[in-house]
Specification:
This protein is mainly alpha-helical and 277 residues long. It is built from twelve helices and no strands. It is globular and about 50 Å long.
Length: 277
Amino acid sequence: MSTLPLRFILKPQFIPSNYHHNYSFERSQQWRRHLQLDSEQPSWCWDVSALPLFFTLLSLMDSLSANNSSPRTWMAATLIDFYINILAIAVWIVYKEANWIWSIIWIVLLICLGSITTCVYIVLQFLMLSPQESIQDPIYFVLLRNRKRNETESKSIMSVLSARILFSVLGCLMLGTLVYTLATDGSPFRQENLTPWLSATLVDFYVNVVALSVWVAYKESNWKTSTIWIILLICFGSISTCAYIVLQLFRLSSQDPTFLVLFNSNNRQVDTTHLEI
């Protein structure tokens, strides 16, 4: 997280006639810097940041196979679903944060506090926007990476191909978990399954689904498509999250920087056009 003081949104300012031209030019310059200075983080940063989540998923898979009682079985399956969505959010945080130490801190908080951390982190990113960024395109600038001064060029922490494989495996993992739990324990819609902790986990889970749904709505230009994806997110959880991310990754070429998957096609077209000039 940036150490700059929070800048609250001030009263609207006068917008000059060349506003849209300047806006596109500034965006193109930011994109050029991101393509050249994709990340200052060391190459091992993503591996270290992801380790707590992977160990958590492994322990939950072991718990799922060991427990035969209905509440515990569905609790383990729900937690796997929950942490796969957390991993998707964590990947964005690793890209977003210029300081790898802050990335690890936020990921640990995500694992421990779930959607509380998600909401706090997103609110902080909105509060740190300048008045101009808030007027132009706030979601775009919230998704965009925080840059440090005197950044040096380095490689991306994850290629498009690696991201496709990662989220394909996670989607298949959750699909297998769901099929296994249904086959061994039956329907989850039973009174005995609605324990207080499972109910709290579901609330936690769906708060993160709301955050992901806002991103999907931003990405999709057609409201019908975004509605369908949001319904799938609600019904199938991280299976839909992984399917959507993989689909978006296949719309990128292998040479594209992976962070382009965060932005909608309009933003990518505007910035790519200016990069060619």
